[in-house]
Structure formats: C-alpha cells, structure tokens
Description:
It is found in: Mitochondrion matrix. It holds the Pfam family ETF_alpha. InterPro entries: DHS-like_NAD/FAD-binding_dom (IPR029035), ETF_a/b_N (IPR014730), ETF_a/FixB (IPR001308), ETF_alpha_N (IPR033947), ETF_asu_C (IPR014731), ETF_asu_C_CS (IPR018206), Rossmann-like_a/b/a_fold (IPR014729). Its main location: mitochondrion. The protein is an alpha/beta fold. It folds into two domains: about 1-210, HUPs (Rossmann fold), CATH 3.40.50.620; about 235-345, 3-Layer(aba) Sandwich (Rossmann fold), CATH 3.40.50.1220. The protein has eleven helices and 18 strands. The strands form four sheets. Strands 8-12-7-2-5-6-13 form a seven-stranded parallel beta sheet, with helices on both faces. It starts with a strand and ends in a 5-residue tail after the last helix. The structure holds flavin-adenine dinucleotide. Flavin-adenine dinucleotide binds next to α8, α9, β17 and α11.
Amino acid sequence: xxxxxxxxxxxxxxxxxxxxxxxxxxxxxxxxxxxxxxxxxxxxxxxxxxxxxxxxxxxxxxxxxxxxxxxxxxxxxxxxxxxxxxxxxxxxxxxxxxxxxxxxxxxxxxxxxxxxxxxxxxxxxxxxxxxxxxxxxxxxxxxxxxxxxxxxxxxxxxxxxxxxxxxxxxxxxxxxxxxxxxxxxxxxxxxxxxxxxxxxxxxxxxxxxxxxxxxxxxxxxxxxxxxxxxxxxxxxxxxxxxxxxxxxxxxxxxxxxxxxxxxxxxxxxxxxxxxxxxxxxxxxxxxxxxxxxxxxxxxxxxxxxxxxxxxxxxxxxxxxxxxxxxxxxxxxxxxxxxxxxxxxxxxxxxxx
Length: 352
Ligand SMILES: Cc1cc2nc3c(=O)[nH]c(=O)nc-3n(C[C@H](O)[C@H](O)[C@H](O)COP(=O)(O)OP(=O)(O)OC[C@H]3O[C@@H](n4cnc5c(N)ncnc54)[C@H](O)[C@@H]3O)c2cc1C
C-alpha cells in the first residue's frame, strides 16, 4: 500500500512543502505532559523519531499553560540525546488538547520549521489532533505505526491486527505519523549524556481567536484513581462479560489493587455497564502491551486480541477450554473465575 495524494492545486503545494524525497530528516514530536513531566507515551514517540534515521534532529512541541509546562519543558530538554530543541507554546488556548487550536499550532510550527516528519502517539490525544493538523497541511497521515524502516517505510497493523502492512510514504513533506507507544520501548527519564536541548518559545502572535477555531473546552470528567494508567501499566487485570455485574467486577479491581495493576475490560463488559468506557481494551479501546496481562472470563474475540496480544505474558482463566483466548495465552486455567479470583485474593499478600 502506498500513500498517494490527490493534488487539487499542486503548484500551491510546492510553495508550502519541498518534496519529501529531497529533504534530510528532521522530526517534530507532539508531546503530552502531565504534572510537570512528559508522558511516557510521548517518550515512545521520541524513540520512534530517533529510529527514522541516525542524523535526525528531533524537536519536541509542548503546549499548555502555567508552571507545569515550563517544568515539563526543562525535563524534556534532557530526557533523550536525540532531542535538539524543545518548543514551548504557552497559552491558555492550549490548556486542554482541543484539536482546533492544536491543529493551527502544528501548522504554524511546521511552516516555520519545515520538518520532514511530524510524530504523535496513537493515544486519544494523537488520534484527535493529528488528522486535523494533517488536513491543514494537506497531507495524509500514516497511522498506528508499529515499526519504522527508514524515513519513508512504515509497518502498521490492518484487519484488527491480523496482518501487518508495509506502507511506503510517497507524499509531500511532512510525513505525519501516529505510532503505537507499546511498539517503541520508553527510555528511562534523565539518562541523557547530553547537556540538554535548547528551549524556545513559539511565537503565537499570528494565532488570533478566529484562526484558533470555535471549539471551547467545557469540562473534563475523569475518575480519581491510584491505579496505574492502563496504557502504560506493567500489569493489567481484565474482566469480561462473564463477571455478570458491576458488583462482581469489583473482584477484578481488588485483584488489580493487590498486584499494583491497571484494570481493563472487554467491550461486552463495558457495554453491559460494569465499568466505564475508558477501561476498554481492544480494537476500539486501548492498545496495551504490559509485562503481564491477566484475562478473566474473556473469550478472546479478534477485536479484543487486537488490543492486548503483544503483552509479554498472557494468563487466561475461562471455563471453556476451546475459548480463543487460550490460543494466545502463555498460561491458561480452564475453570470458573468465581473460584479462581477468590483463591488468588486469599493467597496474594496484602499490598504494602
Ligand atoms: C467493530 C467492533 C469493534 C469491537 N471492539 C472491541 C474492543 O475494542 N474490545 C473488545 O473487548 N471487544 C470489542 N468488540 C466486541 C468483541 O467482538 C466481543 O464481542 C467482545 O470482546 C466479547 O467480550 P467478552 O469476551 O467479555 O464476552 P464473551 O464473548 O461473551 O465471552 C465471555 C467468556 O467468558 C467465559 N465464561 C463465562 N462464565 C465464566 C466463568 N464463570 N468463569 C470463567 N469463564 C467464564 C465464556 O466461556 C466466554 O468465553 C468489537 C466488536 C466489533 C464488531
């Protein structure tokens, strides 16, 4: 499969972009930050950027407002030797990741910096922002990349992860990519031997209210939890429809608590109202690849496997010996989860 473009006005495009093949690589990474630090997923995007070519200066774009943005920028400047500069867009307009202002920001930064590649993670942030920025830049993004083989060749899953497709990007610059963070291991923070990248403010004077768009942030509803983030947890405990009720699903939560794990769910469990949508793992949920994935009462439908089959060790408990989950499981127990989970809870030590 090749990415091709239908150019409505090719001469106009030439003003904005040099052709992809003629440029040496330089990459803009769109980074997310929280509590004064870069999110681990964004560090995966840096690792991905670094694998495009050896000589590939990486610029990190951070946007938001307040002191936590500046803290994140300072940490980002030393977090990986390939980062040559950190660009900071400090404005209330970027306090929340709305696609409209972010799209305009990326367009502004790209037109000034002329990057060959723009990379974000395939998180809800990247999925929201990248397509709008790509439309503004008149290019077609390559999404869900799991492997990078040079500046214009990428591997991405298709058919719910049942096949891998090699994409040769033949379009104009920038080549915009969203990458699966689970496929690009995160380096430890602060292990850079370099003195640190330069930090510069993005000149936002040309971004007026009108160009920013009409969307407004209203509110964010999120659950306060001490549990690790599902997308980056080392251990995930998932429950399926077999749990039967939200009350029973609490067993999964208790087990996760004892193991210091994140909680996951199948779509059937989410649709039945046992847990909120943000816990769904799979094709239309989160993609995870923890060191240990434990699945209780999960059949292993193809759409669920698409979100977890790259986990290092998979443990499945299902009373049906023919359940497809056992085809990907490293350890399987044919049995009743209503016996297995209480047994585990009893035998596991209390979390300190
Ligand atoms: C376009 C599309 C996108 C989708 N996206 C997703 C997605 O992102 N994520 C996702 O998960 N699904 C997704 N689905 C749905 C998917 O096809 C399955 O329907 C869903 O994953 C099934 O969830 P489940 O395994 O919990 O339920 P079921 O398939 O009903 O399986 C329940 C399992 O529990 C076992 N069981 C029952 N009782 C017990 C017990 N007491 N002890 C132990 N085992 C027991 C049964 O043997 C069975 O294997 C999608 C579907 C479509 C069409």
